[in-house]
Amino acid sequence: MSSTPLRRPDLPSLEPGWVWLVGAGPGDPGLITLLAAKALGEADVVVYDALVGEAILALARPGAELEYAGKRGGKPSIKQPDISLRLIQLAREGKRVLRLKGGDPMVFGRGGEEALALVEAKVPFRIVPGISAGIGGLAYAGIPVTHRETNSAVTFVTGHDATGDVPDSVNWTALAQSSPVLVIYMALKHIERIASLLIQGGRSAEEPVAIVCQATLPEQRVLETTLGRCAADAAAAGLEPPAMVVIGEVVRLRAALDWLGALQGRALKADPLGTRRRTESA
């Protein structure tokens, strides 16, 4: 059978003097959007962050300038105001500017700050969402963020604030008592402190936890543990950022939904939550 070629819809073009704030997704280049791919093929300058990999940058058009503007916790980084000023400068030079961010630029990506700077400078811009690591990255680990047998709500929270510390503005006790599933970005550095705060707030030390490193990439690692042991287990495993942490009963579903593991021969468990047994005994 012959395959039908992909018919691309009529998409907008990245025009000179414009800045597109684009999400590159969690890492796998197959997860970028059509608009992101189009922008990579049209941009004069790609200003990219630390979580955008070489496989995605390789999609930029020949001759495009690639400018690194990464920010990594605990390491020397370009200051955020300087990044915004650089975007403005490039746009005013008439360049077609692609600001490429890992995940979604508006989910703990400081895209809102950069967009506000562009508004103040009267630079036209477009926001192109991407797949957030807190959803797509967990899906590649076989962990859904919602499942009707476990949770009807999920909370996304950052593991550090602008100072690099555990956010004081987050009411960890309230989260511990109210949200059945917590997805925590940038939490690995402070996982021991965060776990302690959640346990103090009433969360069980035996609650399942998964830590997903290098999500969606060939180097992806997934550690299944518990809230009480997660800090020690992560240290023993030598896990390093970037990593997502998910806390809640949805982690148990990985026993059935680890589709990447199944491709490598892992046996999957059909009923990890025991829902069939509960239904039959009711």
TrEMBL record:
<feature type="domain" description="Tetrapyrrole methylase">
    <location>
        <begin position="19"/>
        <end position="229"/>
    </location>
</feature>
<dbReference type="InterPro" id="IPR003043">
    <property type="entry name" value="Uropor_MeTrfase_CS"/>
</dbReference>
<dbReference type="InterPro" id="IPR035996">
    <property type="entry name" value="4pyrrol_Methylase_sf"/>
</dbReference>
<dbReference type="GO" id="GO:0004851">
    <property type="term" value="F:uroporphyrin-III C-methyltransferase activity"/>
</dbReference>
<dbReference type="InterPro" id="IPR000878">
    <property type="entry name" value="4pyrrol_Mease"/>
</dbReference>
<keyword id="KW-0949">S-adenosyl-L-methionine</keyword>
<dbReference type="InterPro" id="IPR014776">
    <property type="entry name" value="4pyrrole_Mease_sub2"/>
</dbReference>
<comment type="pathway">
    <text>Porphyrin-containing compound metabolism; siroheme biosynthesis; precorrin-2 from uroporphyrinogen III: step 1/1.</text>
</comment>
<dbReference type="InterPro" id="IPR006366">
    <property type="entry name" value="CobA/CysG_C"/>
</dbReference>
<dbReference type="Pfam" id="PF00590">
    <property type="entry name" value="TP_methylase"/>
</dbReference>
<comment type="similarity">
    <text>Belongs to the precorrin methyltransferase family.</text>
</comment>
<keyword id="KW-0169">Cobalamin biosynthesis</keyword>
<keyword id="KW-0808">Transferase</keyword>
<dbReference type="InterPro" id="IPR014777">
    <property type="entry name" value="4pyrrole_Mease_sub1"/>
</dbReference>
<dbReference type="InterPro" id="IPR050161">
    <property type="entry name" value="Siro_Cobalamin_biosynth"/>
</dbReference>
<dbReference type="GO" id="GO:0032259">
    <property type="term" value="P:methylation"/>
</dbReference>
<keyword id="KW-0489">Methyltransferase</keyword>
<comment type="pathway">
    <text>Cofactor biosynthesis; adenosylcobalamin biosynthesis; precorrin-2 from uroporphyrinogen III: step 1/1.</text>
</comment>
<protein>
    <recommendedName>
        <fullName>uroporphyrinogen-III C-methyltransferase</fullName>
        <ecNumber>2.1.1.107</ecNumber>
    </recommendedName>
</protein>
<keyword id="KW-0627">Porphyrin biosynthesis</keyword>
<dbReference type="GO" id="GO:0019354">
    <property type="term" value="P:siroheme biosynthetic process"/>
</dbReference>
<dbReference type="GO" id="GO:0009236">
    <property type="term" value="P:cobalamin biosynthetic process"/>
</dbReference>
